[in-house]
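ENTRY TYPE: paired fold submission
RECORD: A
CONTENT: sequence, then structure tokens
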Amino acid sequence: MIARRISYNIVFNSITKVISIGLALFAIGMLARYLGTEGFGKYTTMLAFFAFFSAVGDFGLYAIATREISREGADESWIMSRIFTLRLLISIMIFFFSTLFVWFLPYAYDVRASILVACAAFIFSSSYGLLNGIFQKHIAMDRVALVELSGKILQVCIIVFVLQFNLSFIAVSISLLATMMWNFFILQIVARKYIQTHFILDITYWKKFLKESLPMGISAIVTFLYFKFDAIILSFLQSQSDVGIYGAAYKIIETLTFFPAMIVGLIFPLLSRYIITDISIFNKIITVIIKLFIILLLPLVICTVFLAPEIISVVGGPDFYAAAPVLQILIFALACIFFGQLFTNVLIAGSHQKILMYVLFIAAMLNIMANCILIYLYSYIGAAVVSVVTELFVALIALYMTKRFTPFVCGTIKLSSIISAGALMLLCIIFLPFSHIINTLIAVILYILSLFIFHVITHDDIMHILPKRS
């Protein structure tokens, strides 16, 4: 029953997220053409600071709260009410201090104003993000997916309105704030089906909780430094046009990072439970996810490498053609992100977040030093290369630590069969006498058929995905 619910949530969330990706790419395309490389660079800078506020204000509350409410006998309402209050207070403090330092940044007035709008959006984003833990525990992330999809539709509508009436860049930034507010208020209503949250001040509990969560909070800041800080460094060392070219490719990659985050988010409560109660189920869950990631990543990487110019042309237009090689490099970073997210969350489920913090800190320091050098020398190409190397380092170290500090043992995933199907796909793309797009479509179909022929995917796997009928 649990497996069926997870499968259903994965498929349902994937469908809604694919629609959201389509809407996001549509919005990126409109904004790229409307703002140009320099204006889109401003937009990318604003989003980088939005990620910065999210990292600074994380404090590990979401991950540890989700872990705690997933334990046997946990009082969800009691825990979430206290953490929700703490979350809101931290967010308001960050907004207050950001209003002081933002005017000292070396940006134009509209960029600094948009950064403040992004900070206001962070208050609502961080609050509704905490609520996701409730839906994760009850394996009901389909509700979150629907709300976020409606928020994305709202954001696209606002962007269309802005473009229709030729409004300023600041008006574009307001679409982010409106989306986060919508998601927060709707999810608050939906969450009442599971728990009731109240504003409760409990300093004693906060102190105890923060001792557990702060290592994860520090890890979130460190993760931002190696995952998002490159855009900010790029905005300091190069022009906003360079930031825009890098941002066009990076936004495409960022829209795809939903999938590992979604999958890992769904299984995290189960990992937290079974790492204590049933090691065999714990290992089986991780093995299935590793297999799923490999199956997805092979065609994704191959197709992106061959279709990058066409993808950039559709998304950004001819002004962003220089972003194609950036996208070809960053797709390998995305592959590493899949496994990095999985193994870091396994470590969190096993309460090894302190060890993880040190590893991520080392990764961040190396990333910043490498970015400062390579961005200065090679601009956005240097930033892309550093992203790949950093994500690969994190994934490999997280895998090593998972094998050393947790009872994880990988089961059978039929790796040779998956690679054979991928190789067959690659040959079709290279040697079929059609355009890249036609070759890729044929190759993907052949890849899927090969997975069935090699029994990588079976009839039972498909039946598990289908909703159970009464």
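RECORD: B
CONTENT: sequence, then structure tokens
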Amino acid sequence: MKSLAEFISEKREKAGMSVTGLAKRSGIDIQVIEDIESGKELFLSVTIRQKLARALKLQPAEIKHYEKNVEDISVNPETIDNLKELILQGETDLYCPLCGSKLVVRIAKMYDLEDNLVFHPKAHCSQCIFQIK
């Protein structure tokens, strides 16, 4: 099966458009189009999918078919635990175990039922749907 990047590139070329042309016709920033076609974007927002579909004369479902399936993605629990520990230790230069992009990390301060302060590591990928809640 083709990747989302291959599918969009193929449909754009078949329509006789350049990347710039698709960006203008769809109203999507050229960097987003380039990220999709280079394989950096595996999932699209509803808005981006609809704009691409309209510009390429497709149905949004045709594009969604090529997006990465969230259910197919799994990360070793040990990897998650290691990332959580690193976040709690103050490490900020961490990368996504799925796509290798930079993780956006933070430590949430919460209180338990006995009013004790608890630190909870959180992270999300800057490019894909990976997150630590």
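NOTES ON RECORD B: The mean pLDDT is 90. The chain has two domains: 4-71, 77-132.
STATUS: closed
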